[in-house]
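User: I'm preparing a small set of examples for a lab meeting where we compare how different chains pack in three dimensions. I only have the primary sequence for this one, and I'd like the structure in token form so I can line it up with the others. Please keep the answer compact; I'll paste it straight into my notes.
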Amino acid sequence: MFTPPANWSKLSAQDKREARFASWMSIEGKPMATPQAKETYLKHTQRVKDIIGLKKPDRVPLLPFMGAFFAQYAGITPHDVMYDYAKYTTAWHKYNHDFQPDYLVFSGAFNPGKVFDLLDYKVYRWPGHGIAETQPFQTVEGDYMRADEYDDYIADPEAYYMRTYMPRAFGALSGWAMLPSVFATMELPMLPAYMIPAGLPPVLQSFQAFVDAGKAALEYAVASGQADGQLMAEMGLPALPGGFTKAPFDIIGDTMRGTRGMMLDLYRQPTKVVAAVDRTVPIAVQLGVDTATGQDNPFVFMPLHKGADGFMSNADFRRFYWPSLKATLLGLINEGLVPYLFVEGGYNSRLDTIVDADIPAGSTYWSFDKTDMLEVKKKLGGWACFAGNLPNSMLHAGTPEQVIDYVKNLIDTVGVDGGYALAAGAVVDEARPENLHAMFETCKAYGVYR
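Assistant: Understood. Below is the structure token output for the 450-residue chain.
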């Protein structure tokens, strides 16, 4: 965990970032099995720090997000990964030892199925729970937040989320809908009335499910920490990213209102959408700060969903999506953190908007999926570090020769000046091993800056 110095509030954003990077890059307290592991850790953390600062490191870093591929490669299923931590550890170690990546870029496939079972999670289907054991998890969109509930959310987002949204999204937490406001505890005579619902069977059952899920989550955290800790000690691989948050529009639009509901709201009640996403900004910032600080890692992962080309017009993007995202980025940057934006879909029509003078140069990381990388280079070059966009379809259905040519072209055209990392366009769930080897080996050999 990162411990801010006593004068934290007086430091500039740049000084805060230097403090966070220094803590993350330090090997003090990090057990390393060999001098080579120590050297690798220091080299790889410096490499990614250099590209954030728009510099040329020793070579182009490799930063693909690994999904279910490592399970496929080891001959196990995504269901095995989510329910059998020993199998997960063996598979995760096999992938990392065989492919020798630069970083432990966390696996979207490794999630604790037992936790979701205990909570009766409604918003997703996962292997063996609504979908085949061989498939990665999928979102089930719905209006878990009703169209007429914006005022309730805006008035008190946390209370709304706990007492209205969560009882709908988690079947085992339905009893929480009976909980009163915590402000009922402000006076001694009022306290018993507040506590009465906690003794009702539905509420007791919900809290018990919550406690049981917490214990299961702790088991998962221990297994994950041991698996990554061993790899760090043996190979010197740093973990990336550390924290997590989302764009305020996506927080509401992804799993609360759903795509259909949110897009209708843009026309039926636009002022409430703006008020709700603005109200969500401090929540999104604090979530990123808390999770990154807890992991002692300066990077905050942010998957971008509903701002992609085709979801809304540029005018709507500038009105509904970008202002609150920008405010979240600035809030994270002010706390010394680096937003790690995972730009899903295409952002070809958004590039002119996101290159914003209010966002300091060298303070963000953008990993693109289907965006024209020459345009990215033209518009983000010298302002922000960027990555992408090796097509996942090529990794799955192409040839090693095609992958090699594509990687070399990316390095020659958009990676030549530094401030660039090589990544697949999306999370890697399915790929031919020889294609992934071609991606990694070409980057390591051809991506050296001379």
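A couple of notes for your slides: The first strand starts at residue 104 and ends at 105. The chain is about 50% helix and 10% strand.

User: Perfect, thanks.
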